[in-house]
Amino acid sequence: MANIKSVDNLKGHWTKSQLADREEVQNNLENNYDSIDDETPDELQGYARKEWLRIVPLLKKHTPASNLDRSQLINYCLLAQTVHDCQEHIIKDGLCITTDKGIDKANPYFTMQDKAIKNMRSIANDFGLTISSRAKIENQKVQQKEPDDPFANFLEGEAG
């Protein structure tokens, strides 16, 4: 399941209320939601299927992704397929195409790809798949560490 720091391993100055809240969240994530199912959905083929197989093990290891997130993850993989397919058309036809009337215009696959990338980014943030969303998670972990307390260090030095 998620890489959630156990209440027993927390350091720092936590009130009983904060510890109780943290423990409740931890228990709820671990016990109330089934971990996302590994089975690849039938609707995912080709590149979308490869993306599912690549990403689900990572999510299971590092996030509290559950079966409730399954349809959103399917959408992410389908969008990855769209980006992949559009890129093949862009490579083949170029960024600009010439119409039957001899007018150059932007390749419509570029517009579709751009929209798919934006939608993927939105979903990716929810799953911690972008550097900025992972940085937020890591920042929360750092903030949970025990702050330096010079007075405590002084007392420990006196006791030794």
Q: What attributes characterize this protein structure?
A:
160 residues; 2 strands; disordered N terminus
* Helix and strand sequence: HHHEEHHH
Count of DSSP H/I helices? 6
Mean pLDDT: 80
Strand content: under 5%
Give the termini distance in whole angstroms. 41 Å
Secondary structure tally: strands: 2
Largest sheet: 2 strands, antiparallel
Poorly predicted regions: 1-10
Notes on the protein architecture:
By secondary structure, this protein is mainly alpha-helical. It has six helices and two strands. Strands 1-2 form a two-stranded antiparallel ribbon. Helix 2 crosses helix 3 and helix 3 packs antiparallel against helix 4. The longest helix has 24 residues.
SSE inventory with pairings:
Layout: H1 16-31, H2 46-62, H3 70-93, E1 96-98, E2 104-106, H4 108-127, H5 131-144, H6 150-159
Antiparallel strand pairs: 1-2
Short description:
This protein has about 160 residues and is mainly alpha-helical. It has helices at about 15-30, 45-60, 70-95, 110-125, 130-145, 150-160; strands at about 95-100, 105.
